[in-house]
Amino acid sequence: MNLESNHLQSKKKIIVLGGDGFCGWPTSLHLSNLGHEVIIIDNLSRRNIDNELEAESLTPIQPMGTRLKVWEDVSGQKMGFYNIDIAEEYDHLLEILHSEQPDVIVHFAEQRSAPYSMKSPKHKRYTVNNNINGTHNVLCAIEDSGLDIHLVHLGTMGVYGYGTAGMEIPEGYLDIEVTTDSGERVQQQILYPTNPGSIYHMTKTQDQLLFHYYNKNDNLRITDLHQGIVWGTNTIETKMDERLINRFDYDGDYGTVLNRFLMQAAVGYPITVHGTGGQTRAFIHIQDTVRCIELAIENPPAREDRVMIFNQMTETHRINDLAKLVSELTGGEIAYVSNPRKEAAENDLHVKNDLFLSKGLNPTTLDNGLLQEVTEIAQKYSHRADYSKIPAKSTWTKEQQPGIPDAE
Ligand code: NAD
Ligand code: USQ
Question: Does the residue 388 lie in any domain?
Answer without folding.
Answer: no
